[in-house]
Amino acid sequence: MYRSHPLSASLRSIRHRPYFRSVLYGCLVVSSVYLLYKFVNPTYSIPIYSSSSWTDPFSGDLAESYVPADETSADVWLGRANSVKLSFLHGYHGYERYAQPNDEIRPLSNDYRNNFNGWGVTMFDSLDTMILMGLENEYNRAMPFIEKTVFSLPDVRGEFAPFFETIIRYLGGLLSAYALRKDDVLLRRAEELAEKLDNVFATPNGFPLFGVNPKSSGQVVGPEIGILAEIASLQLEYTALAKFTGKKRWWDRANTVIRALDNADLHKTGGMFPIRWNLTSAQPFDTHLSVGAQADSTHEYLLKQYLLTAKTDKANLIMYLRATTHIIAELLMLSPKRHLLYVTDTTFSTNEHRGRPSHTFEHLSCFLPGLLALGAHTLPLDDLASLGIDLNEIGNESMFGRSGKSYKLLAGYNLKTLHMWAAEGLAQTCWLSYADMPTGLGPDEMVMHTVGDDRWGKTVDGYKEGGGYLWMDAIEKWKSSGARGAPPGVGDKTPVIYTESERLRGSARARDYSIRKSGYLLRPETLESLYLLWRTTGNNKWRDRGWKIFESIERHTKTPSGYASLRTVEVLPAVKDDDMPSYFFAETLKYLYLMFIDKDPIPLDEWVFNTEAHPLPVIRWTEAEKEAFDIQ
Q1: Which of 80, 81, 104 is nearest to 94 (CA)?
Q2: What is the pLDDT of residues 476-514, one digit of tens each?
Q3: DSSP class of 198
Q4: N or C: which end of the chain has fewer CB within 10 A?
Q5: How far is CA 382 from CA 197, 376, 458, in A?
Q6: Distances (CA, A) of 182 to 128, 173, 179, 485
Q7: What is the pTM of this model?
């Protein structure tokens, strides 16, 4: 019916006019090429993935659309470090003006809040950053407050200092500043604080309770079931305090926790520590495994306690190897389209079946790639025999049931290489969670898409296992097919930024994840890992990505008196929240600054960061100290 249309007649006539026909065909070819470029070029739109990519996707990985500048001059990086220093000054001066000596400033209302005891946590958390940045005026103005702070709370019901936060922020800040400056006031205040908190250890096995009122009554609070991160993230701080003061009692506090962890029955969790613990029996209470909230710092302290003690505490090393073996074999997974490597949490015993994964990926978990890179950099993972360690002896089926097979599986790989693959793949995903957002800042929590049934997965022996594709399954397949291209989940990938209409419709799935908690809380974990990947590999792409994140922080979170958390990273202009946590000074800006200066004042073989980024010097016990402290 269209043959009688005028356009149809015109097109028919072109067949008898070769010149116009050639012009028309040429225009069609040029237009097609242009449209194809616009459609597939990641600068302008999302990448397209084949529907068959899941069935055999792992011969290589998607390439990133750009290569971060590798020729940036030292002067430029120094200028960037100075920009971070100016950001610190901007935020800290706002705190001094509107909030000091209280805990934190509210950077929108210029009010303050006392959420960590009211002792001025921002000052304590910021001391070592000031020292590293050479901010003498700010340090000198803070010290009179530090010296006069009264570590006390009203002796009324409900007033308790949370032990975990007080240790990592206050005690860690004091000890780190003392190690850098050797000001005796700092050590004296650190020991006074430890004395005030000591009643918190009033449990049968020496695990700390949740909190204590530091007045003379020493009232304590906390349930019988404790949280892993809160009961086992003190080892670094108390070991350093013992070394600095020469007092065995502080070493005993740390060592008691280490011995309790080492003696725990982990046959249901593959050698990895679950979240909840019975403080009376010092044994696990559940089988919920995670490297995110409520668990992260304990896994971190296994490696770091070994490094802090100059690689002499072998028990911590073995616990670290068990934890990371289970994490790599059972908690690392790949998304279906972009092949994003992510770490999630699982529930239920792993003795007979796989744990059931939630496919939740937390920003807090983004410390893990840095930890794995640090371990690969500092440990002879490719020659554990030199340390008298056999992976098959520290974990096997007789010890951990089905999940004990993971030890034999990983023993077939170069463990140093495998840990670095995991580190780089996870860091890539953490970075993409930022790069995918219009603000350039990452959300607090995501739910990763999976193949098949997201909730229950397949049935094995009558048990419903969670869905998802285990990273080690993909690695095994890649290895057996000739190991061509980048390992699964490791290659660089292109950011995917949704349009506003795509976001509002909620129909786009090209990112391979949905956002559960869209806020950005000025968190440091991704930057921590970018810093450690830069220092351990020397690859400037990690440094360059850190700079992009800093630019986004400056662009979207800055206020006249500081920097504010964002309520969501998904919209522009960004919607700010009236909150600037003290860790922004202790961690976020510190890692950025250290990433951008060429000569690191905190060499990784001489210093160890606590979980609040407070560096402590590696400890070498003298023979007299070993005898006095009963260190074997």
Answers
A1: 104
A2: 999 999 999 999 999 899 999 888 877 877 767 789 999
A3: G
A4: N
A5: 42, 9, 35
A6: 12, 13, 6, 51
A7: 0.88
